[in-house]
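Posting this for the archive.
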Amino acid sequence: MNPAKTSGSARPYHHGDLRRAILGAALDVIAVEGPSALSLRDLARRAGVSHAAPAHHFKDRTGLLTAIAAEGYGLLATALDAADDLRDAGVRYVRFAREHPAHFQVMFSPELLRENDVELTAARALAGERLRAAVSALPSDGRGPDARLAGVAAWSLAHGFATLLLSHNLDAQVGEQDPDEVFHALTGMLFRSPRP
């Protein structure tokens, strides 16, 4: 038997990056069926490797989900880093959720994650730093809310909109419109500049 082939398959085993292949397969499963459907054994079968191979990279299911969350926070930090202002950061947050729904779902399910993981902690802190930078750029007249509460408000609005959008609760309201433009318009209606 050729060791380069999996049993019952003509696909050769030559993953240049098995870790990436397992992550990609996991993201596909989560996007369709949710994180509860994840099985390292099933992911190994999909990747055409032994059932023990994923454990080499992730140890267990929690390790895999933690790696997905850490990657998601890194991607979110990159998206927020390019924001022009807080409004643009919100649009980018919503776009991130739409483009990476599996990451988004796992990132905000702490019960699935190894919270003390170094990579997760660092990536989460970086994304939080990017959001705080956008909030701190808000003009302050000395009468507005403190930066911490402004950050909570901004995050709540973007996260709530993204969550409702992904769960199809806004299908009728958004329709065929671009969700980025809808969110931008929504923030404009809610946060108008005060008149002098």
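The chain is about 65% helix and 0% strand. Residues 66 and 116 are 10 Å apart (CA to CA).
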